[in-house]
Design brief:
This protein is 45% helix and 14% strand. It folds into two domains: 282 residues, Roll (dip2346 fold like); 151 residues, Domain of unknown function (DUF1846), C-terminal subdomain (Cytidine Deaminase, domain 2), CATH 3.40.140. Helix 1 crosses helix 3, helix 9 runs antiparallel to helix 14 and helix 18 packs across helix 19. Strand 3 and strand 4 form a beta hairpin. The strands form five sheets. It has a six-stranded parallel beta sheet with strand order 6-5-2-7-1-8, sandwiched between helices. Strands 12-11-13-14 form a four-stranded mixed beta sheet, sandwiched between helices. The chain is built from 20 helices and 16 strands. It is an alpha/beta fold. The protein is elongated.
């Protein structure tokens, strides 16, 4: 059940104040490396119930008079046509999308930086496209020996070869579509160039996870490992922080491993390092805004289970490896969870066993469970959707929201004219049919009015759903998991 465990208003206040303090600490200019998603952080909203997906954006809007956005994209990702998995668009298109979203919110977008630039044809074409849209572009180049050879990196032949990014605000937010973009290198390159010009500037890092002041094995931090299983990120105690302050803080392996190099770069640029540990570099205040630890622990454990199901399903289609599955299995054990701890799993499996057909179950936000089974007219996901709407609307189970007289012509159209072998209605078709029925049927209208209440519900399917059904559930805000099997003509198979 949904239970608020995070104070979002407190977070917005504390986070913006912390960033202001860091700007002042460096004398009035800060390059802030922004990790994670800026305005659609659904992972954070799932593991910290109460955290709004656009919290970071709202926080930045409080600082918009001081802030400008620099968007970074790796030229190799452009050349490889790298796809952002959650949106299904390539990084180049997502960069343009980010520019437009930031501008629509009233934030100033200074430029786009093409990192690892080595005259890749696709990168050159993308650069011309950006210029045609009136967007400033800069080039940053591969540096031999990066990140270990600090003597070469912090020199005219290293950072010195990069374009100097002209900025005009005290807070420069450096963000990107995904990992490996070169955000940190872009920030450090700017520090080198700013210092050459006699301009005081500093660097800080904004990562929501892992949360540095939660225990290492807290489920929220473990959930971060689950989310980054494909990157092999591992949470660990920050040894530099422990050595400097005799205090335990949690960070992740890449930041801990790179810190000695960063420290050396700071010393080369400034003659001394402003930070004693990678944790010092962060400005994350999320841990101070948890108001119900039990609620966030439960939410985080549920996220780990969801990540496990997603990974085993991805393994079937070849997009995840056995090692990722193994890691997720270990993380489940670490937090003391089993798949049965996900409320809709058991009802879905039991319904499938009884019916001999694929089935779905949904946990509503108030904890009630609704199931749906496959029939001649509807797939299990569609049946469950209608059943859930009836329960939320307070309608009797035997009420038909869509009459067979409406469904059957649609089935005939699908099979006889559109070439579909499966006559059953997908969820998008069911919602269209329900909308039509709502014009003349009061019950259908009541059910349709409850669609908004599906947001945040938990759903499990005994088979991997069609792409259409999966997309509809995602748009409705339903958290979906599936058993790692495909539906066969009779029931299902591996």
């Amino acid at each position: 059940m949904n239970k608020i465990g995070f104070d979002n208003d407190k977070y917005l206040s504390l986070q913006s104040e912390q960033i202001k303090k860091r700007i002042d600490f460096f004398g009035g200019k800060l390059y802030l490396e922004f990790g994670g998603k800026l305005f659609d952080d659904y992972h954070a909203s799932r593991v910290l119930p109460g955290f709004m997906p656009d919290s970071k954006m709202k926080m930045l809007l409080q600082l918009k008079d001081q802030a400008e956005i620099v968007i970074v994209i790796n030229s190799n990702d452009i050349e490889k046509n790298k796809i952002r998995g959650d949106l299904g668009i390539n990084y180049a298109l997502d960069t343009i999308r980010l520019v437009n979203v930031f501008k629509s919110k009233g934030l100033f977008v200074g430029c786009v930086v093409l990192t690892h630039f080595s005259n890749q044809p696709s990168a050159i074409n993308f650069e011309e496209r950006l210029k045609g849209l009136g967007i400033k572009t800069y080039r940053h180049y591969p540096i031999d020996g990066y990140p270990s050879n600090t003597e070469h990196i912090v020199s005219e032949d290293g950072f010195g070869k990069n374009d100097y990014i002209e900025t005009s605000h005290s807070l420069v937010v450096v963000t990107a579509s995904g990992p490996g973009s070169g955000k940190m290198a872009t920030c450090l390159s700017q520090l080198y160039h700013e210092n050459k010009r006699g301009i005081k500037a500093g660097y800080a890092k904004f990562e929501t996870f892992p949360i540095w002041n939660l225990p290492l094995n807290h489920p929220v931090n473990i959930a971060y490992e689950a989310a980054t299983a494909d990157l092999n990120d591992v949470n660990m105690i920050d040894p530099w922080h422990l050595q400097a302050y005799n205090k335990t803080a949690v960070n992740y392996n890449r930041d801990v491993e790179i810190f000695p190099v960063l420290e050396a770069m700071f010393c080369k640029i400034y003659s001394s390092s402003p930070y004693k540990s990678p944790t010092d570099m962060g400005v994350n205040m999320a841990g101070n805004c948890i108001m119900d630890d039990e609620a966030v622990q439960y939410a985080a454990k549920q996220e780990i289970i969801r990540r496990y199901y997603a990974t085993v399903c991805n393994k079937i289609n070849g997009s995840s490896s056995s090692s990722e599955v193994y890691k997720l299995d270990l993380l489940l054990n670490k937090v003391g969870c089993t798949l049965a701890d996900r409320p809709p799993v058991k009802p879905a499996l039991e319904t499938a066993k009884i019916s001999g057909q694929p089935a779905c179950a949904m946990e509503l936000t108030d904890g009630r469970i609704v199931t749906g089974k496959t029939s001649n007219l509807l797939g299990s996901c569609s049946a469950m959707l209608l059943n859930a709407l009836k329960v939320i609307a307070g309608l009797d189970d035997d009420i038909l929201l869509i009459s067979p007289q409406v469904i059957e012509p649609v089935q005939k159209l699908k099979t006889e004219h559109l070439g579909n072998k499966n006559p059953r209605l997908h969820t998008d078709e069911v919602l269209v049919a329900l909308s039509i029925s709502a014009v003349s049927d009061e019950n259908a209208k009541k059910a349709l009015d409850c669609i908004k209440d599906l947001k945040g519900c938990e759903m499990h399917s005994t088979v991997i759903l069609s792409e259409t059904d999966e997309k509809v559930m995602k748009k409705l805000g339903v958290n979906l998991t599936c058993e790692p099997v495909y539906q066969s003509k009779t029931s299902c198979s591996n």
